[in-house]
Q: What sequence folds into this?
């Protein structure tokens, strides 16, 4: 009987040690992302949220605005998306292609706006990946402030700008009686 209990204790101890070792191996920290991986990750994350909103918000509410002085939901999406070219174009040595927001009459349907948002996000991600780690430290000039800065800093500035407009779009959702995609319970 004592041999059986001793064998059971040894088996449990070996099992616990094996489990501890397996967890310790899987709990090892991952390597830090490279400069371009970190930028593209942030870029794609805010892009994902904006695309989700563009796809989710009802088309019959695309012209909703909280107060008359504000942009409509669609105009907010067009502004934040076109603004991404304030990173993409200078990073490639070009002037931003949208000095003003695209006009709503040029992008009339929800499908056209969703496609535009996706293209703006994708174009930025392509530039970041093409620049790579070395390119993220290259210098460019901010088109508005005329300040010279690293390309990665310009990208992060546009990510922040996009996040600010994302917050505004959350308010549009709430005022329209809707729940934003990111605020819904995860399945």
A:
């Amino acid at each position: 009987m004592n041999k059986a209990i001793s064998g059971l204790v040894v088996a449990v101890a070996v099992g616990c040690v094996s489990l501890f070792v397996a967890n310790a191996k899987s709990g090892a920290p991952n390597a830090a992302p490279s400069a371009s991986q970190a930028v593209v990750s942030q870029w794609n994350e805010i892009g994902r949220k904006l695309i989700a909103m563009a796809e989710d918000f009802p088309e019959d509410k695309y012209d909703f605005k909280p107060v008359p002085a504000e942009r409509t939901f669609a105009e907010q999406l067009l502004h934040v998306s076109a603004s991404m070219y304030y990173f993409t174009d200078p990073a490639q040595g070009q002037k931003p292609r949208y000095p003003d927001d695209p006009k709503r009459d040029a992008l009339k349907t929800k499908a056209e706006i969703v496609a535009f948002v996706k293209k703006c996000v994708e174009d930025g991600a392509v530039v970041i990946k093409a620049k790579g780690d070395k390119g993220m430290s290259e210098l460019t000039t901010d088109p508005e402030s005329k300040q010279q800065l690293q390309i990665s800093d310009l990208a992060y500035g546009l990510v922040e700008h996009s996040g600010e407009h994302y917050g505004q779009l959350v308010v549009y959702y709430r005022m329209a009686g809707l729940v934003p995609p990111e605020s819904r319970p995860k399945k």
About this structure: Confidence is low (pLDDT under 50) at residues 4-17. The longest strand covers residues 139-141. The CA atoms of residues 106 and 112 lie 9 Å apart.
